[in-house]
UniProtKB/TrEMBL annotation:
Organism listed in the record: Paenibacillus sabuli
Limits of the ABC transporter domain: 4-227
Keyword terms: ATP-binding, Nucleotide-binding, Transport
Entry-linked InterPro entries: AAA+_ATPase, ABC_transporter-like_ATP-bd, ABC_transporter-like_CS, ABC_transpr_LolD-like, MacB-like_ATP-bd, P-loop_NTPase
GO molecular function, one term: transmembrane transporter activity
Gene3D superfamilies the record matches: P-loop containing nucleotide triphosphate hydrolases
One GO term describing the cellular component: plasma membrane
CDD domains membership: ABC_MJ0796_LolCDE_FtsE
Tree of life domain: Bacteria
Identification of the protein by name: ABC transporter ATP-binding protein
Amino acid sequence: SSLIRLEQLCKSYTMGGQSFLALDHITLDVREGDFMAVVGPSGSGKSTLMNVLGCLDQPSSGTYYLDGVEVERLSDNKLATIRNQKIGFIFQQYHLLPKLRVIDNVELPLIYRGMSRRERRERTIEALQKVGLGDKLHHLPSQLSGGQQQRVAIARALAGQPPLLLADEPTGALDSRTSREVMALLQELGGEGNTIVLITHDPAVAAQARRVVRISDGRLTEEKGAVS
Ligand code: ADP
Ligand code: ADP
């Protein structure tokens, strides 16, 4: 079934009295278990799409269903709740809190979930073991390599077991070998039934997803692996 459904979705920006469509009538279905990349050059609309999919920004028109909930026009409070419950974010710059130990960085988003401390700890440790960092629980982010920091961020995204993992240029700050390791981890997670949407400008990174859609001047076209 569909986890994400966009119907005729538009986002317009106004500049100097002129309005233009950064997202131009996008229709898209992402099924549970899909591992999909959105690829396109700078200025094509990736950040705008990421912000809408991530419930950080509202579309100008059209509809967006996420896990059965019609999210456009919800209040900012409701959007924040949906972000916390439904989406695990992975960013180019990791966005770890530098003064918190690895284990506390991963646990933090779970605190807003009303889980017992014991369950939070269990899920946190399980997620860190999953990404191969079970021996780094008490390190600070600065004591880890870039690839390890990104794996902490992936563990943080996984720990809440959200229906959607949304990764924005997750390899953008990494060298090519480390980048391959992080992509191998995402492929493994995709193979285990996680739904992953990966946004990237890099066709070589996108090619490692099972399905690829291209964005160009705010329009989407299927490139590889679509299921009809
Ligand atoms: P990408 O992430 O692929 O580089 P963006 O989504 O950032 O693309 O931008 C798509 C287009 O929308 C670009 O032409 C960009 O300049 C424009 N744009 C993005 N954000 C804004 C904004 N807040 N106001 C006006 N124009 C914007
Ligand atoms: P990215 O590196 O993720 O593509 P950008 O450099 O395109 O990000 O944009 C950085 C920020 O500036 C974003 O918040 C975007 O919405 C905003 N932005 C991008 N282009 C424009 C623009 N032409 N006018 C106003 N804001 C913009």
